[in-house]
Amino acid sequence: MDPQLFQISAGQLLFNAGDSPKRAFLIKKGKVRVTRLMGELELPISLLGEHDIVAAELLADPDQAVSYTVSAVEDTEGYVLAKEDFAGAFKEVSPWAQPLLLNYFYHQRSAERPERSNVSTLYGILNSFYAFLRLVDPSGSTTTLRGPLNSVTEEVQKSRSVSRYLVGPVFEALSQVALIDIRRSDPIRPLIIIPDLQLFMGFLVVLQNAADLKDGLHDNLFMLNPLNLSREAERVINNLMVDEQLADRMFEPERSMVHLPFEQLADIYKSGNNDVETLDPYHPSIKELEQHAAFTRVVDNERVSVFLNLRNLMRLTIRREPMINFIDVIDYLLDTMHETRYEHNTPKIFNMND
Predict the structure, then answer these.
(1) Which range has the worst mean pLDDT, 185-199, 210-224, 301-315?
(2) Spatial CB neighbours of 172, under 8 Å, sequence gap ≥ 6
């Protein structure tokens, strides 16, 4: 008898932490998000998709409670597997193929364990990256780390041999969210840079906790506090972040410095609400944002302009609510890893849709 089918819509729960689903779920199509609680926060630890088994450990012990929550990222369907279904299917497999099936089952069974999860792999890549960058950093700066992109990438790939194919996509994704900058303007020696060490360290610690790793490169108690800005500074950042003319340049380190007449900055500040007071070049919020390296004022013949650092604006945005933004970043990175892993690992000889 074929196993029962299941279907859940995007956003729908498959089960909660503490539940006893008693059955595993083989995904035929779609994608689910695995999360665990850290205090009051729900931290993502894995994305599972086509060919993956959710709650594979229940095929061995169906009465145990699960320690994680699973919800659909997109419409998902597949098969509900009871212990007897798996045992019956296993008996029908040729003896030579049974060890392959058991090995696959073993790896699936550990997919939701934090220390063996996608987020644990991500932590390993970034921890190695941070360590190697500290070794090769030629700048001597205490506020940034930098090193040759190709050399750092090669070394991290060596140290993470099983997941080496993930290193490049993870670095590119980190650059998209401004936790690192990849500068390719020099074709001979492109650089990889961590401009905000404290922000990056805070992110590493969140990953370490999400993966439930007791030991790591960083103090497990370190927590990045929210950055408190004035109401006017908040408005400047919010309006700059959604300005259509600036949006594309935020994701390209080489184009992220923008020169604006102060009048244009003042117009962006007032956009969408003409009732707010006019921003002048010497308003305390302008000095406040200068101190955070969001931009620099330039006075030329009594005309004031600003050089915006759009990448630092993105980093300031993360710092305002670090934990919430870190969760969004983790989701984005796990999605990048999922797509890369699927393209890299999907066996061409198998097609569940045939």
Answers:
(1) 210-224
(2) 182, 336
Reported as a pLDDT band with limits 50, 70 and 90, residue 354 is very low
The answer to whether 318 and 326 have CB atoms below 8 angstroms apart is: yes
Give 314 or 99, the one with higher predicted confidence: 314
CATH of the domain at 277: 1.10.10
Domain extent, residue 219, equals 118-224+321-343
**The pLDDT value given to residue 350:** 46
Considering its fold, how many domains does the chain have in total? 3
- Residue 27 · residue 52 · CB < 8 Å: yes
Q: Is residue 186 part of a domain?
A: yes
Give the chain's mean pLDDT.
87
- Shared domain for 327 and 304, answered yes or no, is no
Q: Measured between alpha carbons, how far is 160 from 132 in angstroms, rounded to an integer?
A: 12
Rounded to whole angstroms, the Cα distance separating 336 from 169 reads: 7
Give me the helix-helix angle, 322-345 and 310-320, nearest 10°. 110
Tell me which of 82-86, 108-112, 259-263 is least confident.
108-112
The reported pLDDT for the residue numbered 352 is 44
Is 124 found in the same domain as 144?
yes
Tell me the C-alpha distance between 306 and 290, whole Å.
10
Cα(197)–Cα(213) distance, rounded to whole angstroms? 21
Quote the pTM value.
0.88
Per-residue DSSP letter, 71: E
First to last CA, the chain: 19
- Contact residues for 140 (Cβ-Cβ < 8 A; gap 6+): none
Residues 336 and 274 in one domain: no
Task: Please say if the pLDDT value at position 102 is more than 70.
Answer: yes
* d(C-alpha 217, C-alpha 59), whole Å: 36
CB 108 within 8 Å of CB 53: yes
| CA distances in angstroms from 29 to 87, 110, 210, listed in the order given | 23, 21, 27
The Cα–Cα gap between 189 and 184 comes to 8
Of residues 302 and 332, the one with the higher pLDDT is 332
**Looking at the structure, do residues 218 and 241 belong to the same domain, yes or no?**
no
Domain shared by 150 and 77, yes or no: no
